[in-house]
Amino acid sequence: MIPQTFIADLLNRVDIVDVVGRYVQLKKGGANYMGLCPFHNEKSPSFTVSPTKQFYHCFGCGAHGTSIGFMIEYSGMGFVDAVKELAQSVGMVVPEQDDKIPPAQRAQMQAQTMALTDAMTRASDFFKLQLRSAPTAIAYLKNRGLTGEIAARFGLGYAPPGWDNLRSVFPDYEAVVLAESGLVIDRVDEDGGNKKRYDRFRERVMFPIRNTKGQVIAFGGRVLDHGEPKYLNSPETPLFSKGHELYGLFEARQAIRDAGYVLVTEGYMDVVALAQMGFPQAVATLGTACTSNHVQKLLRQTDTVIFSFDGDKAGRRAARRALEACLPHVTDNKTIKFLFLPTEHDPDSYVRAYGKEGFEQEIQEAMPLSQFLIKEAVGEHDMSSPEGRARAQFDAKPMLQAMTPTALRLQIVHALAQVTMTSTYEIESLYELSKPVAPARIAPPRSQRTQPMGLELQIMRVLVAHPALGLEIDEAALNAFQYFGAEPAERLAQLVSAAQSLGESGNFAAFAQHLKSQGDEFDGLIGDIVKEPESERDTERLVLRAAIRQVKHDALKQELSQLFAAGLSADQLGLRYRELTAQQDQLLREAQAELANR
């Protein structure tokens, strides 16, 4: 069982607009985003996504939920798989069960993450400030055709010469967090004696690498002269895994949606220069081969991915690795292409030489994945000989086996059969290709449960919308809930306990996901909250306090009315009467004080 605290942390890290926007074309409409519902056919958008509530809702079919719920309903995957998918996208590791990571250790991990994020942010601010007074770095960027506006958009900076410039940023230059974040390097003498600490990045143009939340998690540094290495990247850290991250993805998200495709390049400068030249939908891998995680992340952003590689042997090898990473994720509603530029060009130089229109033409004529796969299988083999055709089939086998059963795979098998003078049936039999099995996507059912009324509903509504306010509900309030009756009191007590378990950071999305995992009892209430404008927590706190005071008052009034039938002695009766009326007076004073402070 995945801990509820982890679910809450995850929903705080992911952005539902980003998650849903990978599959649904969203447009800003006031405070929310609108689009066509993916769960039922409609011509005008009734599907809304709230960035403040971190929730989606369809006014047509009633489908609603969090980022986790969307992944479950849209893809047909299970709860655990959906959590793992989202966690992977933000670099989180899912604990398998509650006792795997003790609370103290989890708190320590969260504190470490916050410390690392803070260190990277402060370093990024320092590098940006240094760029303003670095004429050589400014000249380099201008020479590459970059404007100050584009440099600011990507947060470019400069690491000046010197071994310990970050000492001016971090008074405790020996802090462990600086080494953990990769900002500094510790070198120890061979005899294990003296330790020397120095800045990792020196005399380089700095490219901050952001996660999907926009937080700086790593850096890439480009040398100004002909020194080596040309690019220096941050090492792997608890925040940063280069096999999961893509440079420029945070900056390119909206442009990718607008363009309808993402362009994957090989370097930081390609991304920044292409954005300058009118192609802001470009991203880059981080000095490593394209991985399966990269492909998943890209296909969640858009239905069309175009890889751009140099036409030399190194570019071909990189393209082949990208092809292999793509194959397990190929579906019939996604398009993957490969663009090979002339040997003497990279994307930046090609756009400068042939203009935006020329590069757009290259993009339109990019090689489809199916064609590239056949081309790689055929290679330089002699298709006029049985040996050559057999070798092409041999080379194609692992690639086809890596693909899921799709219509596209069948088309590739057809093409390979034609090239190798074989039948489709013979290739499928020879490769033992599995037959397609496609899970159906259905909209989540609408709740038919009757909702509570009056004060009970008001309290429940506030708790679900702002679960952190549950921490303010005391034992006296829980006792007063008995006024509603045994069943409603138990329901409210369970709701308060669940809200309190999320702590001060509890929010609507995390709580709604938790409630949904327990059943559909609160679906109607959650749906109503989603439809309403975002409410202010301080305002709702006053509403909750007033409602609880009213419940307490009504409970006291009810007890007073039943007091004389309770069989108490005169002394007991008088004592209890004075206690109840004193409590009523206290509630009245609290209400008056709160009113005076508004």
TrEMBL record:
ZnF region ranges: CHC2-type: 37-61
Cofactor(s) of this protein: Zn(2+)
Coiled-coil regions listed in the entry: 570-597
Keyword Nucleotidyltransferase: yes
Note describing how the cofactor binds: Binds 1 zinc ion per monomer.
Top enzyme category: transferase
Keywords of this entry: Coiled coil, DNA replication, DNA-binding, DNA-directed RNA polymerase, Magnesium, Metal-binding, Nucleotidyltransferase, Primosome, Transcription, Transferase, Zinc, Zinc-finger
Subunit organization: Monomer. Interacts with DnaB.
PANTHER family recorded: DNA PRIMASE
Protein name, entry field: DNA primase
Gene behind the chain: dnaG
